[in-house]
Each structure stands twice: as structure tokens, then as C-alpha cells.
């Protein structure tokens, strides 16, 4: 391997020996093609023409007036398939193609990453296999149908909790037996090196654009950048544009579910401890015996018991701060953004909006310029929101 893939003490490579050749091949290809003009031109072509980049940096004037801060929204919700996940799916899909692979493997919980992978597979002419916990297949029928319409094969995983963490194990297993033909397209900044660095590279377009856009609109950098954290990809993407600017505060927002027993929700960095999960050392939610906890949040995309290793590092170094937001706070923010701006955010993104509201209301933050990464749109969440509000649709 060329690099260790460490962020401080976090990250690294903790996989079965059998996977090392695949990881080595992937590392070599990534570092080669990220500096290859033809690859990068093609990447930019698809980001622009297929996904609709650049996304706007939208001044939320009504919300700002209400809160007494300047709030800008980075509109990843306007991308094809409705969220930032497509940035990474395009990048890795194209990389797989340059590597001569014919098949993409992915795992998905709520289905959003499965859809992003399915559509880029269709576009680039690659076969797609999606591993999905059988419980999730049942809960997310509409998304399963969307994937199948794009030609993907959805494989229900009946192991363990029948949800995301078991489908990740299953996807790794399938990859080991099909290394020559397949690429495992991980959807967030987790996994063994080179995944955390590679996913960050493909998502850093968010931060690059946001930085240029805020300089153009405000003639200065923002005071604060806020993003929600599941595995950590939309947040690391936008943070990357500002991490070297010491004066810009970076805040990641995690899901605290019902707020009662937060160890059982997605608030990994707030509540977790050091551990190895899915190929790297990071902070994870686990019990005293090292068993990984089952998590539950209103937003399926934040419902993951681990977090990318670079976030563990940014927290330990103090460069970024991580805070919890409950389901209820997220739902209130969801409604506030709908009502003030006419924008329907994803429930994941609503966590970031909710913290921005809390933050703006604090006396010491009055008048600050804040960028909130609106990672996705809320169409997928209509049934969940209706149920939470006690409305039938
Ligand atoms: C998947 C998802 C997330 C969480 O994933 P990250 O890797 O932490 O970005 C956040 N927002 C939306 C809209 C998602 O679909």
C-alpha cells in the first residue's frame, strides 16, 4: 500500500487478508486517476450534465430574518436522485469503469445510496447488485422498485438484525469472491483506506463550490458551517472547503432519536467509544462486550452505529464539533423550512437546519453568517413525516 490512510490514530485498514489485493488495486487506481486529465474531465462532465452541478448557495432570507442571522443553504437537494450521494456514486462508478470492472456492488439501508448506485450503473453500462437487509426491503418497497427499474438486482439479507450493518458484511463477502469483475461502491466516508479519502475526494466538490459562492456573495468566509452526519460524507464534503480556515467553525449534527437513550441512536460521536467497524478504527456505538448497537432515528440516512474515521479525528483535534439533535427538533425544523422558504428538506438535512436554528438563537451568535448543507430533499420522507404528525395521506 502507498498510504496508511490514517487520520491521527483513526482510520487504517482492518479487513480479512483476502481483501488486501482488492484494496491495493483500488488505492493504486484512485491515486492514479484522480490526477488523470481524461478521468477528471469525464467526472466533471457527469457531475454537470447528469447530476446538475453546480448546486446553488441559496440565501434563506425569510428564515434569516426570523432568526437574526444570515443563513445560506447549499442546495444538494436539487441534484439528480435528490441528494449528495450521487456525487460519490458518479466518482466511484467511473473509477470502476476505468479499472475495467463490469459490476458495482453496494449496500443500502433506506435505499438512497442504492438508487444513486443503480442509476450510475445504468448510465455507465455496469451491472449492479444491491445488498439490503430484508427488514429494509420490506420497509422501503418503493425504493427497491426504483432500483429495479434502473436494472439493479436487489438481494435481501436475512442475517442478524436484517438491516444496514448486516448488508455491509454481506457485500464485503460477495466482493471477496468476485474481486476480478466487481467494485464495492461504499456510499459514505467509512470503510478501510482508501474509501474514507476517496469518498471525501468525490464529495469535496460541495465544499469547493460553497467556498467560491460565499466569497462571491458575501465577500468573506462564513462564520460557521453546519452539516448532518450519518456516515459523514456530506459533512466531510462541505467541511473540506473550509477546514484550513481556522476562523470558520465546523459543526456536525448527529441524530439523537427520541433523545431518551441516546446510546441507541445515531449520535455516534457524542456517545460512542473507540472501536473497529467495517474496516477502520473510529468511534462506534457498542456495548461493554464490543457488540455493535442497533440504532434508531426518524431519518434512516443517519441511522448508522459508526462514523467515518476523519470525523473521529476532527473531533479529537477540536477542529470540528459534533452535537445531537432529536427527532422532534428535526421535525420542527423540517416544518419551519417548508413554511418560511418553501423548501422541503430531507429529514437527515432537517437535523442540520434544527441545529442552525438553535445556534442562531444563542445571543453570542447573533448576526453570524452560517452555511447549512442541505444534503437532500424530503420527497422520500413524506410518509414518515405524515405519520409523525398524525396525518393520513
Ligand atoms: C445518506 C444521507 C445522509 C447521511 O449520509 P452522510 O454520509 O453522513 O452524508 C444525509 N443526508 C441525506 C439526504 C442522505 O440521503
TrEMBL record:
It is an enzyme of class 4 (lyase). The modification N6-(pyridoxal phosphate)lysine is found at residue 85. It comes from the Archaea. The keyword Ribosomal protein does not apply. Keywords: Amino-acid biosynthesis, Aromatic amino acid biosynthesis, Lyase, Pyridoxal phosphate, Tryptophan biosynthesis. Pathway: Amino-acid biosynthesis; L-tryptophan biosynthesis; L-tryptophan from chorismate: step 5/5. CDD domains: Trp-synth_B (cd06446). The keyword Hydrolase does not apply. GO terms for molecular function: tryptophan synthase activity. InterPro entries: Trp_synth_b_CS (IPR006653), Trp_synth_beta (IPR006654), Trp_synth_beta/beta-like (IPR023026), TrpB-like_PALP (IPR001926), TrpB-like_PALP_sf (IPR036052). Belongs to the TrpB family. The beta subunit is responsible for the synthesis of L-tryptophan from indole and L-serine. This is Tryptophan synthase beta chain. It comes from Methanosphaera stadtmanae (strain ATCC 43021 / DSM 3091 / JCM 11832 / MCB-3).
Amino acid at each position: 500500500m502507498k498510504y496508511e490512510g490514517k487520520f491521527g490514530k483513526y482510520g487504517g485498514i482492518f479487513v480479512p487478508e483476502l481483501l488486501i489485493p482488492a484494496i491495493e488495486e483500488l488505492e493504486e487506481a484512485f491515486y492514479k486517476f484522480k490526477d488523470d486529465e481524461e478521468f477528471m474531465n469525464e467526472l466533471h462532465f457527469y457531475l454537470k450534465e447528469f447530476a446538475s452541478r453546480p448546486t446553488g448557495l441559496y440565501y434563506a432570507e425569510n428564515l434569516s430574518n426570523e432568526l437574526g442571522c444570515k443563513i445560506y443553504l447549499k442546495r444538494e437537494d436539487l441534484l439528480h436522485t435528490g441528494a449528495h450521494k450521487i456525487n460519490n456514486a458518479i466518482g466511484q462508478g467511473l473509477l470502476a469503469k476505468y479499472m475495467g470492472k463490469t459490476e458495482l456492488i453496494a449496500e443500502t439501508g433506506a435505499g438512497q445510496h442504492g438508487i444513486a448506485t443503480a442509476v450510475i450503473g445504468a448510465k455507465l453500462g455496469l451491472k449492479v447488485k444491491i445488498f439490503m437487509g430484508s427488514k429494509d426491503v420490506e420497509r422501503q418497497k418503493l425504493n427497491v422498485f426504483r432500483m429495479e427499474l434502473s436494472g439493479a438486482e436487489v438481494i435481501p439479507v436475512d442475517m442478524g438484525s436484517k438491516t444496514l450493518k448486516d448488508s455491509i458484511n454481506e457485500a464485503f463477502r460477495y466482493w471477496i469472491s468476485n474481486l476480478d469483475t466487481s467494485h464495492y461502491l461504499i456510499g459514505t466516508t467509512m470503510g478501510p483506506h482508501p474509501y474514507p479519502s476517496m469518498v471525501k475526494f468525490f464529495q469535496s466538490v460541495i465544499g469547493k463550490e460553497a467556498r467560491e459562492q460565499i466569497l462571491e456573495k458575501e465577500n468573506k468566509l462564513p462564520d460557521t458551517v453546519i452539516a448532518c452526519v450519518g456516515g459523514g460524507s456530506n459533512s466531510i464534503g462541505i467541511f473540506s472547503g473550509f477546514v484550513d480556515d481556522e476562523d470558520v467553525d465546523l459543526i456536525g449534527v448527529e441524530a439523537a432519536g427520541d433523545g431518551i437513550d441516546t446510546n441507541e441512536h445515531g449520535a455516534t460521536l457524542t456517545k460512542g467509544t473507540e472501536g473497529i467497524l467495517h474496516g477502520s478504527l473510529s468511534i462506534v456505538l457498542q456495548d461493554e462486550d464490543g457488540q455493535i448497537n442497533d440504532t434508531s432515528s426518524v431519518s434512516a440516512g443517519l441511522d448508522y452505529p459508526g462514523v467515518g474515521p476523519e470525523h473521529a479525528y476532527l473531533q479529537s483535534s477540536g477542529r470540528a464539533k459534533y452535537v445531537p439533535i432529536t427527532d422532534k427538533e428535526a421535525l420542527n425544523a423540517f416544518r419551519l423550512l417548508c413554511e418560511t422558504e418553501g423548501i422541503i428538506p430531507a429529514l437527515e438535512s432537517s437535523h442540520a437546519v434544527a441545529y442552525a436554528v438553535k445556534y442562531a438563537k444563542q445571543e453570542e451568535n447573533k448576526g453570524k453568517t452560517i452555511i447549512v448543507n442541505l444534503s437532500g430533499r424530503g420527497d422520500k420522507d413524506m410518509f414518515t413525516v405524515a405519520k409523525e404528525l398524525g396525518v393520513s395521506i
